[in-house]
Amino acid sequence: MSVVTDNCSRSGSPTALTSEFPRRRKCALQEATEPNHIRLEALARRRDQSLLELGKRCLAVLMTQSQRTRYLKTGGILALLLFFVYILSPPSTSPTSASVGSQTIKTKCTKPYDSSKPLIQYAVMIDAGSTGSRIHVYRFNNCGPTPELEHEEFKMTQKRKGGAGLSSYGEDVEGAAKSLDPLMQVALDTVPEEYRPCSPVAVKATAGLRMVGPELSQKILEAVRHRLETVYPFPVVSRERGGVEIMDGKDEGVYAWITTNYLLGNIGGPGNNPTAAIFDLGGGSTQIVFEPMFKMPDKMEEGDHKYELTFGGRKFTLYQHSHLGYGLMAARNAIHKTIVETKHSSNAQDQSWLSEPVHNACIGPGMQAHVNVTLGEKHPLGEKVQVKMVGPKHSPAAAQCRGIANKILQKDAECPLKPCSFNGIHQPSLAKTFAREDVYIFSYFYDRTAPLGMPDSFTLRDLQHLTDTVCAGEGSWGVFEGIADALEELKGRPEYCLDLNFMLSLLHHGYEMPLDREVKTAKKIDGNELGWCLGASLPLLSKDSGWQCRIKQIN
């Protein structure tokens, strides 16, 4: 029995357990004849299974040790490849947030398309118009090859007696400069402090300031520049790049064209989408810009009207012209002046009529208006006169008013380079070179049609019907009762009939657009203001655009 006991004794080492595997099976059989043999046999089986599993684990350890070095090398190569893929990948288009000071700015990518540009940029543009000033604060991202507008803040100066434009302050140049303070407060409220030193500001004055003369206008502009540079933290665009200037009329129109087509997605992206024409009606001037399509061998005539533009890598040859003196306020004065001079020519020796009401077919029936008419220097009646204008008593006179509007367009003026639109100005025929593409009319076009319920798209014939209804007088205004504030608008503007007649005359008689031609009008596209300001701001985001980041002073 001692031999059996020695041969079947347990060993404490893993090696002994593995090498004695056959012997243990024999011991188990020998013990089967002993008491409790069934229990012992079950224990032996479980022990054998444990030994087998332990052997497998030991073998796995040995194999892992032999392959570990190779796995580490392979993993390192894969990690390096993934790093390069991340670096070279295009910007993510999923929205992300960037914390700036106390503000969190959401944008659509995590890094700029061009590493030399910041992810987010701001630009501040002030439109110093003839009737008031307006500020536009734009925020862009550089997620793609062309800056994308993300947000716009807009505000205009409050109305004041005598006008709110820079020119209305006359010799008070400091007052003119300070009139922009409420607008600049919007810029301070909108642009995070960290971005202000690298957010350029520019001021572009239009026709109104041009009319006060070069000496006074320059003094006003210098006062504006000085205040912006000394009071506010934004870099002002240089004099050489027109940071504070009277904008050339052709630039005003082209910038408005860029704004409209940029917001419509016609330019700045992939593809060669057809572009829209723009007709901008301001207070002192009106602009037209479009991309005419000529049939070979015809092409654009050379001249100041031709404007070659590259935007987003695409080249455009545009027709543009700014008709100074044909903005809505200037047209009002021209129509009133025509009526006054007609009256004066039949009463040259007697000026007593100036104290009496003067009949004006462009004033609504039964309405009246006290009008200040500018006649010009050395006029027999003086440079300016105030006249009480009264409309027809009963019968409407829309056709008569339109005749006066047609007259001031001077369609019979000499046309040195044919064809001409009006006042002797060359223009390619819209019917031949721009017959089907979209035409957008805005500014005063929108301000006079939208309050009366006109849709975003209508024909000139629709505009003619609206004009005739307004000029027919209050007895025909029942159609406007369901439109909020329409009747109040009509009753508060005796010259509404004049305004609509001039617009219709300008489009149909001046630009020779047929009555069935459809036009589109809007104040905003995708929540962004139309006009020239956005188009003028986009170039400021490029390098060498006339400004440098300001260094913040440390006290």
UniProtKB/TrEMBL annotation:
Keywords: ATP-binding, Hydrolase, Membrane, Nucleotide-binding, Transmembrane, Transmembrane helix. It is found in: Golgi apparatus membrane. The keyword Methyltransferase does not apply. Its EC number is 3.6.1.42. Pfam families: GDA1_CD39. GO terms for cellular component: Golgi membrane. GO terms for molecular function: ATP binding; GDP phosphatase activity; ribonucleoside triphosphate phosphatase activity; UDP phosphatase activity. InterPro entries: GDA1_CD39_NTPase. The active site is at 252 (proton acceptor). It is a single-pass type II membrane protein. The keyword RNA-binding does not apply. ATP binds at residues 283-287. Signal peptide: none annotated. Gene3D superfamilies: 3.30.420.40, Exopolyphosphatase. Domain 2. One of its GO terms (biological process) is nucleoside diphosphate catabolic process. Its main location: Golgi. The chain crosses the membrane at residues 71-89. Belongs to the GDA1/CD39 NTPase family. PANTHER family: ADENOSINE/GUANOSINE DIPHOSPHATASE, GUANOSINE-DIPHOSPHATASE. After transfer of sugars to endogenous macromolecular acceptors, the enzyme converts nucleoside diphosphates to nucleoside monophosphates which in turn exit the Golgi lumen in a coupled antiporter reaction, allowing entry of additional nucleotide sugar from the cytosol. This is guanosine-diphosphatase. It comes from Emydomyces testavorans. The lineage of its organism: Eukaryota, Fungi, Dikarya, Ascomycota, Pezizomycotina.
